[in-house]
Amino acid sequence: EPNRPRNDTKTDTQLILMMLVQVGLSSLLTLTRMIYYAYYILGPSLTGYNKMIGSFLMSFTTLLYYTNYAKSFYIYTLSSRLFRSVFLQRLKEYSQKIFNLNPLIMKNVATSQTR
To answer: Is 25 exposed, middle or buried, given 0-12, 13-18 or 19+ CB atoms closer than 10 A?
Structure first.
């Protein structure tokens, strides 16, 4: 199997890329929230229009912070051909299992209605 080491290297490269993208994006999303929150706590008290802008920024950075917990699937889907192929393969397998069960279910429903 001369292609085996090459495939392993390719897989390792994709996994490293996925990890680096995730770490970078996690850092960005978390740091954005931390920086604004530090400014909010340590900075001058806001009034009027500035308070409204501050409230918007607080909400926006909080949204970014919570997006950090939902990003993995999207990062993996966008950055890794390996993940996409395995994901699509699993979808295909499960859909085949579901559709192969349907004739059995329909047969059981039909026989139970005739009793």
So the answer is: middle
* Residue 109 DSSP label: H
Q: Residue 18 and residue 83: Cα distance in Å, rounded?
A: 9
Which residues, at least 6 apart from 62, have a Cβ–Cβ distance to it below 8 Å? 33
* Secondary structure class of 64 (helix, strand, coil): helix
pLDDT above 70 (res 109): no
| Of the candidates 28, 58, 56, 64, the residue with the CA atom closest to the CA atom of residue 40 | 58
Domain ranges of the chain: 1-79, 81-115
pLDDT tens, 38-79? 988 888 887 889 888 988 988 998 888 888 888 888 877 777
Q: Where are the alpha helices (DSSP H) in 1-115?
A: 3-42, 48-67, 71-79, 81-114
